[in-house]
Amino acid sequence: MDNFASPQPVLEAIGLTKTFRVRPDRIGAKPRYVHAVSNVSLRLSPGATLGIVGESGCGKSTAARLIMQLLDRDEGAILIDGEETANGRAALRAYRRDVQMVFQDSSASLNPRLTIEASIMFAPMVHGVSRDEARVRAHELLGKVGLDPARFAGRYPHELSGGQRQRVNIARALALRPRVVVLDEAVSALDKSVEAQVLNLLQDLRAEYGLSYIFISHDLAVIRHISDEVLVMYLGQVIERGPVADIFDAPFHPYTRALLASMPSHDPAARTLSPPITGDPPSPIDLPPGCRFAPRCPQAADVCRARMPELLLKDTHAAACHLNDPRSGHPVFEEKAA
Ligand code: SF4
Predict the structure, then answer these.
(1) How far is the CA of 306 from the centre of ligand 1 (A)?
(2) Within the chain, which residues score under 70 in pLDDT?
(3) Quick one: how far is CA 313 from the chain centroid?
(4) pLDDT tens for residues 73-118?
(5) How many Å lie between the centroid of ligand 1 and the Cα of residue 332?
(6) Which residues line ligand 1 (CB under 6 A)?
(7) What is the CATH number of domain 11-268+279-337?
(8) pLDDT value at residue 3
(9) Is residue 53 a contact partner of residue 217, using CB atoms and an 8 Å limit?
């Protein structure tokens, strides 16, 4: 599916940027900022799943909260069906009908004092659906996520397993009949067999309800399994994006290549003993000039430390690396020309 060439994405984010002020450690100290998300753009096609992957701390969860408008952005815009979302409570209410989120922690997301049925009914009733209709909807959704309403509707969250609670969270996210669901590490806390069942369930629901997903995970195997398009983040920036096959079979950015090299292999001959990425990421408070991956990149050159590479699109695959631009001045091109 060619997400990036799609003329009308269901959801689009342009240039999302978010910094957090760090509490000064002494009176009169200069303010410092964590650069959590820098100029992140994405397009989500109707019916597609866009995977967002990166190490912990890369900004993917902050990006999800910006997309959900749970956090105010410093800069950028969010569009639904090509229309920029407006400010104000009524606009946010309408947005929340269209875009819902499932979090990682299945128990923290559910009110322990509400039955499963009441949890699912809550949002539709707030949005004006009658109690009877909300109950019918809750029972229908419980059935769709594989939980028999006759057995589960009256139970409380502590009476369910982690996998069952996450199914309830998915049902709750669908209760307002959204078009987009943002799933933030939604299967990461589940054991592998339950994870596979929930992933299959998500794919079935996507087809049945015509949903589009933004699926955030640190797990490359999960991202590969579920995504049509992938966006790779490093230190708050998108450093590569493209169709899932391009990213996994022909990664371009040195960071994406290192991430993929760190994937566990079932083939003992293919296992590497040396760590694919050395060193820790730089602090998001004191970012290096130029390319943010330069301190860890084996191909870093002077131009990388001096100038930030742009996310350059070639066909449907884009990478932010001077090696992607023959005019960048990276010495690799001079060597080739010599
Ligand atoms: Fe490495 Fe330079 Fe590319 Fe950054 S721009 S990823 S430092 S080669």
Answers:
(1) 11
(2) 1-7, 106, 264-276, 336-338
(3) 20
(4) 999 999 999 999 988 888 999 999 999 999 887 677 899 999 999 9
(5) 11
(6) 253-254, 291, 293-294, 297, 299-300, 304, 309, 321-323
(7) 3.40.50.300
(8) 46
(9) yes
